[in-house]
Amino acid sequence: MDNKEYLNAQRAEAWREALRKSKPNKDRIGIARVAMNELAPDYRITCNEEVNQGLNRKQALLEASRCLDCPEPLCTTGCPVGINIPKFIKNIERGEILEAARTLKETSALPAVCGRVCPQEKQCESKCFYLQKLKKEPVAIGYLERFAADYERESGQISVPEIPQRNGIKIAVVGSGPAGLSFAGDMIKKGYAVTVFEALHEIGGVLKYGIPEFRLPNSIVDVEIDNLRKMGVEFVTDCIIGKTLSYDDLHEMGFKGIFAASGAGLPRFMNIPGENLIGVMSSNEYLTRVNLMRAADPEADTPVLPGRKVAIIGGGNTAMDSVRTARRLGAERAIIVYRRSEEEMPARIEEVKHAKEEGIEFMTLHNPIEYIGDEKGHVTRMRLQKMTLGEPDASGRRSPVPIPGAIVEIDVDMVIVSVGVSPNPLIPNTFKGLTISPKGTIVVDESSMRSDLPDLYAGGDIVRGGATVILAMGDGRRAASAMDAQFHR
Amino acid sequence: MNKIVNKEYFSANVVKLEVEAPLIARARKAGHFVIVRTGEKGERIPLTITSADVERGTITLVIQAVGKSTRKLCALEAGDYITDVVGPLGKATHIEKFGTVVCCGGGVGVAPLLPIVEAMKKAGNKVITVLAARTKELIILEEQMRQHSDEVIIMTDDGSYGRKGLVTNGVEEVINREKVDLCVTIGPAVMMKFVALLTKKYDLPTIASLNTIMVDGTGMCGACRVTVGGKTKFVCVDGPEFDAHQVDFDEMLMRLSSYKGIE
């Protein structure tokens, strides 16, 4: 049965039909999209509590009733991990929330995470019938996903997907971020013996070191990881594949397949004067100190500089995470400096909105050209080149062009450079026989995620260079499916 | 969790820990380092591996108690566990037969120098080792160095042992005396800076092993960046060893003071 037949068969079930008939579509269409419950901005900048508070049951059931349970649900084509979206939403509508959560887990290893950090507005929700045909706001699929996952967790009745008889084939996963976890979840469900190797001391990769607590609490990530553990996935921390254990070591240990999901590596800098001054750092460093090493906790040994006038260079989600973190750690001025205009910003609209509510300043069409420091080497000022927009560039966005002579200076005591990362070099440098792109990514076949080493598949940022949690998870799923097919050939 | 199987004091503030880490012991080479974390709220700090025993499955670290994290580590006893030890990290030292190699170390920098001295000797080099410290009590690993060196020169600031003078005096003496093909230096950044200035004067190729601030140690955070030959490099993945004549030691010294007063 292909996916379309599966979706149709599920849709034809009696309860779904009855539910569709229970309310006329014109009533469904008349309901306004639910608004997320949020903490007030003046309160949330004083703490690290999660900004989005989720929907309550009443809100969720009403929102779920907006979904028309389309005969051809395009939303599912927008989901990189192929969640059966109408099925889980209709389960919410009929009040079977635990069943909705089980539906999510059929294809997603991390529903509570995805419900929080996925850019649904660019994926499932962008394909929604409401938006496409009715020119109305789409069904809040992301909010509903989060609701179902949270409900299940808080109910204490977390379901562990059924695991078939173990087939005894050992699979190694390199990295415990979203790609690795998604792959591990699928492979364990297919019966393999899965071990995940993590270089850091905590499991979760970017979900732990990168995304801040106020957007994705660590406790949520831990529950999802725990769920994988219950399913039989083994985790090994403090183990760097390519360093602690080599490719050959993995073979000697009996691993028959390897999935490399080693993620982002070296942070990019702009190579401008003063970039190595004290107080100038990458967003990876800043966020790792605060999130993974808990530097803001007075009990923690890892320090973080107390920035009061903080500039963040860049306009992506990581830049938003950094600037909002700086605000919470006491920055009086926390400024996004971005060389294009707000329209071209890659960050999620919700992140930009939240940032603005929290008093973040936006200096768009500005680009740093120099950092200036005091006699001890601490950054104190930065010079910015004003920009204008020219013709579209390779990314399809209008390119930033300097305005000759238009240079301004501002006072800063901390600068966080968030202009992207290169892939982690450890596997590309140590596994012989891989094809590595000029950007440093592992080259794979796009449909199977298989590399030039026949037993090595790869996905996430090590292949994409820099992507989202959900695209990484989609890679994990595709690789799992292809690797499984290879073993059955 | 890695068990400490043996602890030895070199001086009041310098200890040697032998730590269970069988995979690292097997994989490590001269020049490699590990990242160590002590306690659940501990900091990740880089430490160069002094030696390893593959059969016992242990590595040896020499630590000087200078800050909060190193003090915590030095306070651990045999039988205690280190929360995390991960590695081996960085690029291994490039070892070949160069001819005559001067290896000079200051303070606890002498510890990571030991495996390099050993490997250089094994590769057929004539190895002259210069050990320097403020005073006699702070000279460490002299015996082991003598085992693997053709000659050991000891320098102390106060003249309490060996000759009175700085590490650079010892190195310069050797350069003036015979043909030297390579210099390897490990120690405080300021010491390496002056060794580099000296050997540059004599056009003597010099390798310095840098110990910068790191967080993850695997090429992710960029805290360890240094300028080498005008370009930004990451000590954790591009190093830790670089051409000492190309390293901007003044910038490195400045960056090492990033968190002074905060810790």
SSE topology sketch:
The complex is a heterodimer of chains A (489) and B (263).
Chain A: H1 3-11, H2 14-21, H3 25-29, E1 37-38, H4 41-44, E2 52-54, H5 57-66, H6 85-93, H7 97-107, H8 111-117, H9 129-132, H10 141-155, E3 170-174, H11 178-189, E4 193-197, H12 206-209, H13 218-231, E5 234-236, H14 247-252, E6 255-260, E7 264-267, E8 280-282, H15 283-292, E9 309-313, H16 317-328, E10 333-338, H17 349-357, E11 361-364, E12 366-373, E13 379-392, E14 398-411, E15 414-417, E16 421-423, H18 426-430, E17 456-458, H19 461-464, H20 469-488
Parallel strand pairs in A: 3-4, 3-6, 4-5, 6-17, 8-15, 9-10, 9-15, 10-11
Antiparallel strand pairs in A: 1-2, 7-16, 12-13, 13-14
Chain B: E1 2-11, E2 14-20, H1 22-27, E3 33-37, E4 44-48, E5 51-53, E6 58-64, H2 68-74, E7 81-82, E8 84-89, E9 100-106, H3 110-122, E10 126-133, H4 142-148, E11 151-156, E12 163-164, H5 167-177, E13 182-186, H6 189-201, E14 206-209, E15 225-228, E16 231-234, H7 235-238, E17 241-243, H8 249-256
Parallel strand pairs in B: 9-10, 9-13, 10-11, 11-12, 13-14
Antiparallel strand pairs in B: 1-2, 1-7, 2-6, 3-4, 3-8, 5-6, 14-17, 15-16
Give an account of the 3D structure.
The complex is a heterodimer of chains A (489) and B (263). Chain A has 489 residues and is of the alpha/beta class. Chain A contains 20 helices and 17 strands. In chain A, strand 9, helix 16 and strand 10 form a beta-alpha-beta unit. Chain B folds into two domains: 88 residues, Translation factors (Elongation Factor Tu (Ef-tu), domain 3, Beta Barrel); 157 residues, Rossmann fold (3-Layer(aba) Sandwich). Chain B is built from eight helices and 17 strands. In chain B, 53% of the residues are buried. Chain B is α/β, with parallel strands linked by helices. At the A-B interface, strand 7 and helix 15 of A face helix 1, helix 2, strand 8, strand 15 and helix 8 of B.
